[in-house]
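Record type: monomer structure entry
Structure origin: computed from sequence
Chain ID: A
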Amino acid sequence: MLWKIAEVRTNKEEPSIVVLDKFGEKQIKELLHANSSIEKIKELYFIKNNFDTAYKFYDRYFIDMLKKNAILEKDIIVYNIKVFLYSGLEFIDTCEKLMGKLYPEEITKLKNNGKKKNETFAEGIWKFKEFVKSIYDDNFSYRLCYNLRNCLQHVGSEGLLLNKDKHGYHVLLNKQQYMNSHSGIQKNFAKELKSNSKTTFDIIKFLYSYNENINSLFKMVEKYCEEKIIIDTFEANYSIFSILGQEEYNKNKGYVLIDIAESIDKNSVDMNFKSIDIAKSIDFVDTHCKIFKLYGKQTLLPSVNQFPHYVKRDNVVQIPILIIGDSLVKENLTWKQTYSSIGLGSNNYFSIYVPLFFSRKIQAEITNIVIKKLNIVD
């Protein structure tokens, strides 16, 4: 399998992509890496759709059936609850694995205040575990559903009861029957249940709360996925941008990463050829980062809401006078200066600005990508 970078050309009646020979193996590997992250993230939305489907079916079932005087069978109700809780577990497991793939850098954490051996996790897995722990600690509904799923899987539906009144059906969990039938309840949760004054719990209410817990997890993971997409897409686009130059980059409608059989020996490839998009917008780099590499004598003149810029010279022989710019600049966006340095000799200046609305992590990642690719050394 041979990968190449190609540009999209639309100056003909039929669009075509033309292979570029300016990209070496290193750049193509970087672009492939960015793409693989985006492919991994698609899995999140696939598995979330599975959970949403299970929830909608469950939700519709109980709204349509429990509030009516329909004849219900306990087995059908238990089956729907099991499918719903299993799909939640599948979603959580997938999210943890995905976070580990997106943020694989290993970190070591103390376990149980140092009483046991330290544990090493991928950074993403540790972040996810911490977030799940906070939801577990703060939500009785999550703790109940977590343990109920284990019971339904290993023991059965002991303790689940159907109750009918003038308002329709209710699904109740008899606390004592549940605890007597399932020895696998988490010890701390078993103590919590025992100390609770209630003898039955309305399961439907807690299942709705559990759905809200899962959606909170999804929003958290989605946030980290969005950060990864922004960072990876910036890196891929900047590879193209830095090799072609701004003028050439801005001419084109976009770029694709193409898979070409080695036997094909031609510069132009049919648009129907299998390809992977890597650049959706030609202004991606400029809207995510502004870079200033300037030569000039710095002045003490104040800069008011401006990027680094030159003062008009009296003649061409004079060394350019440079105002280094504010740390925050407001245009349509507010830009934050994330890096600045004076190079060898006092007349070389370099700075990077990133939109302020990005998280600190994205700001730092974009800045590091530029510094690395430009071989900037303090």
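Annotation 1: The radius of gyration is 29 Å.
Annotation 2: The chain has a mean pLDDT of 78.
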